[in-house]
Structure formats: C-alpha cells, structure tokens
Amino acid sequence: MENDDVDMQAADTNEADLDDMKKRLKEMEDEAAALREMQAKVEKEMGSVQDPANASASQANREEIDARSVFVGNVDYSCTPEEVQQHFQSCGTVNRVTIRTDKFGQPKGYAYVEFVEVEAVQEALSLNESELHGRQLKVTAKRTNIPGMKQHRPRRANPYMGGFRGRTPYAPPFMYSPYGYGKVPRFRMPMRYSPYY
C-alpha cells in the first residue's frame, strides 16, 4: 500500500516534469522562429541574400555602368573630383567621379569617371594624353572586373624557407683548403617541405 503511494507520487512528478519540458521546448521553438524571421528581415534589408537571378541582374547592371565609365590614370595627387569632373565636362554629362585612395586616405593616382550616356566614353577617350595639373592623363575604357578571375602571379623564391635554387650559398673564406686545390666545400641548406617545388 505504501509502495503504491510512492509510485503515484513519482508518476505525478514525472508528468509535471514532462509538461514543464514540453512548455520550455515550445518556448525555445517560438524563440528560434522569431530569430530566423529577424535574420531574414535583416538579410533582406542588407541585400546579402543573392539569388542567382538577382546576382546575374547585378552583374549585368555593373557591366552597363562600366560601359559608361572610363579609367583615368596618372591623376595628380592634389586633384579633387570636381576638377576631374570639370576636365571631362566637355565629353558629356558626368554622373560620378571616383578617385581611389589607400587605407590612409591618400589618393592612389587614378580615378574612374562615370557618364550618363554611353556615347560620352568615345569623347572621353579623345582626351587621352591631355594635361591636368601639369600631368599627362591616361584615359582608357573601364573594364568590367570578373570576380574570381585574379591574375596569377608566381611566388618569388624565399631564401629563408629552403628550396632556394640557382645560387651558391655563402662559403666562409679558408686560409688553407682541406679539400685540395680549387675545391670548395658544399654547404647544403636543411631540406624543408616546400609545396611550391
């Protein structure tokens, strides 16, 4: 009889614990759904969700903008975007002038000029080798950058990393040659794994 009471109390506490766990699980699922909804809303606002159709549309838009733009090289470091715009005003309506800068805010010496109409690009190309601030500008049509198509530059050999071929290592001068006349000892660099050879 006493044993039956214990079983009833255990069953009641188990049911209460189970109900409590179900309630907590439901709250966690609701919270996770709210978080997913907020994440989707933020991604939509930031524009980080790119479906393939949207990505191809943005690529086409970028190509269209690049068709209306020119690259201007050898721009004087003291030039302002307004002065560059004034220089190219005779070609057509300038939409935007971008003078590239380094991470410290210093100009890199080149700019991009975007026009409203495509025909202005041909007019701007005629301004190649014109002078602005005493420097001869180099004007070319802007090329479209294709993501992932970086030009491969081979790595230079590092003498400190091993695998350095083609040069003889430094040999200290000897007063007398223990190896005979005209023979020089060979010093070999320790061989290390180098994935580039």
Task: Walk me through the structure.
This protein is of the alpha+beta class and 197 residues long. 39% of the residues lie in helices and 15% in strands. The protein is built from four helices and six strands; from the N terminus they run ααβαββαβββ. The protein has helices at residues 2-46, 52-67, 81-88, 119-125; strands spanning 69-73, 94-101, 107-115, 131-132, 135-136, 138-141. The strands form two sheets. It has a four-stranded antiparallel β-sheet with strand order 2-3-1-6. The longest helix has 45 residues, at 2-46. The chain is flat, with a radius of gyration of 35 Å.
SSE layout and pairings?
Elements: H1 2-46, H2 52-67, E1 69-73, H3 81-88, E2 94-101, E3 107-115, H4 119-125, E4 131-132, E5 135-136, E6 138-141
* Overall helicity: 25-40%
Q: What's the alpha carbon Rg, rounded to whole Å?
A: 35 Å
What is the ordering of alpha helices and beta strands?
Answer: HHEHEEHEEE
Determine the number of helices (DSSP H or I, runs of at least 4 residues).
Answer: 4
Task: Provide the structure class.
Answer: alpha+beta
Quaternary state of this entry equals single chain
Strands ordered across the widest β-sheet: 2-3-1-6
Largest sheet: 4 strands, antiparallel
Shape type = flat
Number of extended strands: 6
The termini sit apart by 84 Å
Beta-sheet strand percentage? 15-25%
The average pLDDT score comes to 79
Low-confidence stretches: none
